[in-house]
What we know:
This protein has about 325 residues and is an alpha+beta fold. About 40% of the residues lie in helices and about 25% in strands.
Amino acid sequence: MAHLVESMMYVGKTPWHGLGIPIPEDKKISVREAIVTAGLDWKVELRRLYTENSDGKISSAILDQYAVCRTYDNAFLGIVGSDYVPLQNEEALKWFQPFLDANEATLETAGSLKGGRHVWVLAKIRDSNMDIGRRDPVAHYILLSNAHDGSLAVYVGFTPIRVVCNNTLTLAHASKASQLLRIRHNFKLHANLDMVRDIMNVARHEFSATVEQYRHLQRHGIDMAGLEKYVRLVFSLPDHKSGRNLIHNVVYLFENGRGHQEAGRTYWGAYNAVSEYLNYFRGKTQDNTLSSLWFGDSIIINKQALNVALKMAA
C-alpha cells in the first residue's frame, strides 16, 4: 500500500487514507500523549550478528555489523554498522518540547511507517497564516523524520507539506520548498539535533520580525536593470564584466524559479531569487547549500540581500 502506515495520530484534517487516531484540534496534546497515541511507545536496540555453521550452530560474530530490533516484539528493522547511534522515538518527540513550551508550535501528526522502519513527527507552526501575498504562503510545519533501519539519516527542518504517510514524507524530503538538514546517526547525533533546533528557533523569530518587511518588498516593483544592480550590490561584484554567470542564474530564477508567479517582478521576487540561488545552486549538493545557508557564509549574504532590497525599495 502506498501509505505504508503502521500507526499514527493526527490533529485536524483526516488523512486521505483514513488511518490513524484523531486528536481534537482544541486539545493541547503533550509529548507523552503523542507517543502513546501515535503507537510510538517502543524502543530499538542493536544486537550483534553471528554466522551459522552448516550444522546450525552459531560460529562467530560478524565484525562491525548489528541488527536493529524493536524490543517489544523483536521485529528486525535493519542492519547497521558499529558507529550507528539510534534515535529513540521518545527522543525524537521530546526534541519538539522547547517549541511546544514556547507556544510556537503544536504537534500535528506522528507515526510509524514500513513496520517501524521509518518514523516521523510533524509540528504545526502557530503563526502559519503569515502569508506574504495572497498566494505566497510560508513554510507551515517543522518536520523530524528518522529511519531505524539505517537507510536514511535524520531529516529535520521546515516544510510546507503536511506529512501523513510514506508518500507525503517522501515528498517533503524531495521538495525544494522544504528546508531540511540531514544528520547522521553517529556520536554527534544528539548534539547536532540540539544545535539545529536552536538555529531553527532563531530563524523563526527572525522571520516573524521581518514579515512586514517582506510584504513591503512585495509592494514595490523592480525592472531588469534594477535587478542586475541589486545582484551586484548583494554579491559585491566590482564591475560590469564580473559575475555574469551568477547574474544570469539569479535572473533565470527571478523569471522561472519557485514562487516567481506569486512574487512577480518585485523586490520580494528578487530577494527570493537570490535566496533560491544560495539554497540550491551555490553548492555542489543540497546538503552543502542548506548547511551553508544556515551555518556558513550564505546566511551573511542572505541577510545582505534583504538589507539591500529594503534600501532599494524604500
